[in-house]
Amino acid sequence: MIPPITANIAAFIGDPKVALVHVTVSSAQWTPAGPAAGGVAYESGVITADVVEVFSGPGRPKRDDVMSIAGRRIANEQMRFRDGRDMWNSLEFENGLQMLFALQLPAGGSNHWTALAGWKLTGWNDPAVEGLRRCVEAARMPEAKRVEYLPALIGSPDGISRAYAILNLRNPAVAPRPVNAQIIAKAFVSASATVRTQMVLEMCGRSYLMPELGPDAANVAVLGALLQALITDPDPQGRKMWAGHLAASIGAKLDADPAKDKELRARFAAAIKTPARERAAAALRAAADAAPADARLSKLAEAWAH
To answer: pTM of this prediction?
Structure first.
């Protein structure tokens, strides 16, 4: 059975049983494979590709080798593109397509490699190539050294580097939650606006932000980063987004008792030293004035004003 191709190539970095390669597709041949479960017809395929670079893996292929990769996709084109979760269905594999692949060695006498994950490249200068190269280098480091390297990866313009850094940061064995939160928050503050929007949901996720714990080091790092974005973003829509994340995290009810709810929010305001309280208060008041119907923002503006 040919498995689906996921876009999560970062999950296979450091796996000694998986080859990570950069290839250029030279051909793709598809033949009917008959009906499958549910009556959906599939096609079997063989993708032929020239190896550009090998990053890691067992029995590594060499540069300029020709590889064949077994494929499987839904035969009906309209159905195929509605099921884009499996990259076999979402890519045409046209001649000249450049891909990063996570591949398993041919098994059972087959001549075809098995694709586990893939990443479509925009061209020779796609930052994902250098990103994968750096992630493989990081995977070979001792854990203590890798932690020092993660900030450079998580703020990278390519998704593979960010995904690999996030996988490591979610692992408490790599570093404790406060350290990981500070790493992602620092990278968020210095990242471009585009990268920030791609990082924010992870940074505000339960791996780092736990408002019920009060202003501990991890919560302070994340909330301080959001406030910094609210203050510095020149785009009104960007400021609205950062205000929305703040409102959802600590503008919402923190305690059923109104007095304790207000007190906890005040403790957050007192604990966050960067950005300066006056600048944060002004930005929150502006956000509250821009959305007068959102009582959560008014609560935040009040907490930082005192």
So the answer is: 0.77
